Amino acid sequence: MATEASGxxxxxxxxQGGVGKTSISDALAFAAGVNNRLGRVDDxxxxxxxxxEEMRRRCTISSSLHHLPWRKHEITLIDTAGQxxxxxxxxxxxxxxxxxxxxxDPTSPLRAESSKVWKWITGENLPALIVLNRLDRAxxxxxxxxxxxxxxxxxxxxxxxxxxxxxxTLKGIVDVLAGKAYxxxxxxxxxxxxxxxxxxADRAEELRMEITELAAxxxxxxxxxxxxxxxxxxxxxxxxxxxxxxxxxxxPVLCSSASLNMGIPQLxxxxxxxxxxxxxxxxxxxKDAAGDATEIAPDSAAPFSGFVFKTVIDPHAGQLSILRVMxxxxxxxxxxxxxxxxxxxxxxxxxxxxxRKTSEVKSATVGEVVAVAKLKKTxxxxxxxxxxxxxxxxxxxxxxxxxxxxxxxxKRGEEDKAMQGLYKLGEEDLALQVERDEESGEILLSGxxxxxxxxxxxxxxxxxxxGVNLKAPKVPYRETIRKAVKAHGRLKKQTGGHGQFADCRxxxxxxxxxxxxxxxxxxxxxxIPRGFIPAVEKGxxxxxxxxxxxxxxVVDVRVTLYDGQYHDVDSSEMAFKVAGSMxxxxxxxxxxxxxxxxxxxxxxxxxxxCMGDVMGDxxxxxxxxxxxxxxxxxxxxxxxVPMAEVLRYAPDLTSMTSGRGSFEIAFSHYEQxxxxxxxxxxxxxxxxxxx
Length: 691
Ligand SMILES: Nc1nc2c(ncn2[C@@H]2O[C@H](COP(=O)(O)OP(=O)(O)OP(=O)(O)O)[C@@H](O)[C@H]2O)c(=O)[nH]1
Ligand SMILES: [Mg+2]
Description:
Layout: E1 8-14, H1 21-31, H2 52-57, E2 64-70, E3 73-79, H3 87-93, E4 99-104, H4 112-123, E5 128-132, H5 142-153, E6 157-159, E7 161-166, E8 169-175, E9 180-184, E10 191-194, H6 198-217, H7 220-229, H8 234-246, E11 251-255, H9 264-274, E12 284-287, E13 293-296, E14 305-314, E15 318-327, E16 329-331, E17 335-338, E18 343-346, E19 350-354, E20 357-361, E21 363-365, E22 369-373, E23 383-385, E24 392-393, E25 403-409, H10 415-428, E26 433-436, E27 443-447, H11 450-464, E28 468-474, E29 478-481, E30 485-494, E31 499-510, E32 517-521, H12 533-544, E33 557-565, H13 573-590, E34 593-607, H14 611-620, E35 624-631, E36 634-642, H15 649-657, E37 662-672, H16 675-690
Parallel strand pairs: 1-3, 1-4, 4-5, 5-11, 6-11, 32-33
Antiparallel strand pairs: 2-3, 7-8, 8-9, 9-10, 12-13, 12-24, 14-15, 14-23, 15-22, 16-21, 17-18, 17-23, 19-20, 19-22, 25-27, 25-28, 26-27, 29-34, 30-31, 31-33, 34-36, 34-37, 35-36
Guanosine-5'-triphosphate is lined by residues 17-23, 41-42, 58-60, 81-83, 133-134, 136-137, 257-259.
């Protein structure tokens, strides 16, 4: 790719569901000339929402990207999902971007999705622009929206555009910095530059002064000039503002209407002028080959490192790993090290992606995003690096699903095919979890919400030709222990020729909730040879898959292997694995096992008059209400609720609020299940097994 590092912009378009992110992305692509017509979500002609499941629902499910040339720059644009069911993909897609265009709808209140995505953006220290879209609508409220951005997101917005509204719709935009205005000719995207309308002149000047000050404060040289002369040029303000954006001191706010194709070239200009090139970002923190913290500077002369932020499985090209070059330059046909799986990978062609289409490039440098086909042991979240500078970049955070369903193949005997298809979908979609219930043989499909699981089943049928039915939602209970105990596993058998011998002693103890599993080796003096110790761990992990109360996986335990015996001839990995399993099962019996149930964070928005009913109902569901707040004309209730109590919340909320309530659910944590519920769950499970 020919563009110099300073001419690269890699941005994610993000925000809550339905605010017009994809519509804006299409309008940007049209303005940049990569599409000869304006793609529209509503008539299924979008360049970005191209999967049948997305087109049918008019909703982005998985991010997709295009490259837009603009003023000798190359903008890589990643359009992300906003609907709560699909935002895990957004969270991880943000790792591919060096800046964000955050889209807001001033005609309706901010929802939980906005706060969630904004938190991820600031957590990644991504410089951002905010776009107020849908300004063609009479109900748009700019000032209220700015207040909400400050109060609910903690953002520091500064208007750099003012909408020119006439006859209740958008006619043009005031460019506060330039002291000019643009009026648009219909939906052509063409505009004329005119004087600022008289009625907006004072407000525009006031905003210009504010931004000039912000810009001056971001740069010592500019500050000195500003203090001496009391004024800065347009270019100087722009330069200072860019520095303020990069440090997160301010988020410029722009205006648009994607449907009317207004404000779009101005947004492209702002991306180029106000967002940093990836090479201008501060160094990322990573780990070196020894595991020590190190800085990964976005320097094109440094050794190569790249972060794989997404996987897509293409029917023709197979698996594509999409990576952002974090440092150095990568060439086609080179060998790199996957420092996460510690495997050497040969990169074949480097592919530049345009939606689902690809074209070959010879190399890619800092900030560029390229795809590589058919890597053997590379997953999204992994780092690929120069073999001689084996750095690791912070991997993805663990995702815990919010809902689980049992699924069954429509055709008998297609269970395995369904499992294989679901595993492949899980490669592309990290919010998805697929398990097989050891006992019933049922497939358990877990995801972010019912919609997510339903969409997954549709994809499974379309892409892998297996139809499945969703059965009742299931609660993914877990088991744990409450007491530290010591246990012994001993295998001694004479089979035919030589025997099987392994002996291990372990201590099993509870660890804090959410810590998962820890294995500690304290063998000294070789009572078990080192080569057999991983086998003991494997045996323990196998035994942990099934707890002793109901048979759910066991979590939050530390297992310390402290002693054992072996035999020169009769010991084997297999024998030690069996002994490890035996020891763990022995421990479980005595360690005061407990059943854990998942809690979810529930956010319900309801009209004021329904509050009483909804609160009463929540109490009957064992909810712990944590707070209430007014958001627009709705009351928002935040609570932690056992997942078991809200498996079918949607129809109940609909009937309590006559369809005017909405809610969002995300996994929160596990807690011990009350004793009387445990009996019920055990009985239910037994009944299920007898059927
Ligand atoms: N009136 C008006 N409607 C708009 C505008 N932008 C988008 N829409 C409409 O809003 C709906 C949602 O637009 P999308 O572009 O799919 O929104 P999105 O943010 O990508 O939605 P998700 O991908 O589901 O998060 C579509 O029907 C668009 O036509 C706008 O500026 N004005
Ligand atoms: Mg979209």
